[in-house]
């Protein structure tokens, strides 16, 4: 289900302090890397890869020797990545349905590449879906390096790295929406007095690759589904009695009443308090999704400080300018977000 709201407050995560400027956290909706047409409501995830085989896949470097292991494979790497992708897409509730096709399309041969449109159409028809996301290729590598450290003990670092090629096929218009190569590495370390102790702290090679595949699958959801990102904001909680009153409204998530109070302060207060009221009004406008008003109040706040100087004034000017830069960047992605989430549920 595609969401229409562009941000939420994280339980109004307000941290009460004696400071004039009180921080809070909000969750902001970040657009997906690629915008699919809104008619795509359901997707099918497919393993279209060949089993990975290579040389010097697992590299082990010990204090006294080094060697490679080429006999340990993670043949369900692609399927685990797809399971991770399915889980993350379902968590985001962006598509109506996400399916994982249970059987790899190919497991032998030498041909890599696109799935035919006849197969795409048949799969979409089977699942009543409009698009297919496929793992078309992948490779991986692990490296374990053990060194003696100054106290005579051993320190080990294990890296698991991979690259995964993904394609998304739009069955509605028979176009490949995008092709992405994802590369990533996850690491573990261990410290101890013996090689046996070190080995017990590190995951087995297959387990490490499974963790990596799942992690990369979850991250790949950013390609096609917007996601919530926690960002820090803040507001001025003091300046006069009205600020204290508005702060209570904020803590009870009553932004409408807080706006009324700050607007009154802006209309009747002097320079310093006026700029703080404008900043708070910009924040409230962002919270309510009114970015034009947010920009307006940022400019009003800067204007009210134009003839003032001093250490605290400079701090408040900088805060307003940084907010203006952020708001400019945010406005650039709004059209993209509207394409992705639509105007309603």
From TrEMBL:
Pfam family, one: DUF6340
InterPro entries: DUF6340, TPR-like_helical_dom_sf
Designated name of the protein: DUF6340 family protein
């Amino acid at each position: 289900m595609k969401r229409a709201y562009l941000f939420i407050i994280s339980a109004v995560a307000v941290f009460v302090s004696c400071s004039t400027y009180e921080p809070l956290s909000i969750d902001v909706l970040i657009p997906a890397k690629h915008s699919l047409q809104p008619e795509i409501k359901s997707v099918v995830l497919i393993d279209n890869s060949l089993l990975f085989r290579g040389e010097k896949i697992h590299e082990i470097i010990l204090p006294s020797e080094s060697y490679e292991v080429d006999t340990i494979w993670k043949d369900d790497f692609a399927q685990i990545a797809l399971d991770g992708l399915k889980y993350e897409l379902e968590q985001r509730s962006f598509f109506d349905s996400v399916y994982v096709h249970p059987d790899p399309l190919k497991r032998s041969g030498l041909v890599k590449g696109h799935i035919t449109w006849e197969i795409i159409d048949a799969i979409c028809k089977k699942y009543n879906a409009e698009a297919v996301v496929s793992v078309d290729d992948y490779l991986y590598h692990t490296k374990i390096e053990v060194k003696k450290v100054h106290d005579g003990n051993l320190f080990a670092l294990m890296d698991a790295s991979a690259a995964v090629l993904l394609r998304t096929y739009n069955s509605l218009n028979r176009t490949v929406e995008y092709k992405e190569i994802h590369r990533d590495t996850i690491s573990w370390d261990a410290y101890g007095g013996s090689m046996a102790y070190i080995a017990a702290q590190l995951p087995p090679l297959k387990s490490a690759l499974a963790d990596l595949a799942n992690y990369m699958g979850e991250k790949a959801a950013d390609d096609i589904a917007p996601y919530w990102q926690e960002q820090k904001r803040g507001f001025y909680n003091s300046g006069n009695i009205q600020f204290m009153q508005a702060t209570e409204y904020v803590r009870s998530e009553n932004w409408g009443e807080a706006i009324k109070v700050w607007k009154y302060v802006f209309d009747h207060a002097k320079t310093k308090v006026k700029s703080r009221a404008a900043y708070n009004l910009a924040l409230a406008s962002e919270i309510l999704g009114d970015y034009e008003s947010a920009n307006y109040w940022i400019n009003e706040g800067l204007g009210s400080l134009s003839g003032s100087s001093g250490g605290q004034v400079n701090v408040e000017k900088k805060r307003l300018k940084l907010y203006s830069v952020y708001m400019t960047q945010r406005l650039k992605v709004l059209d993209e977000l509207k394409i992705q989430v639509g105007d309603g549920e």
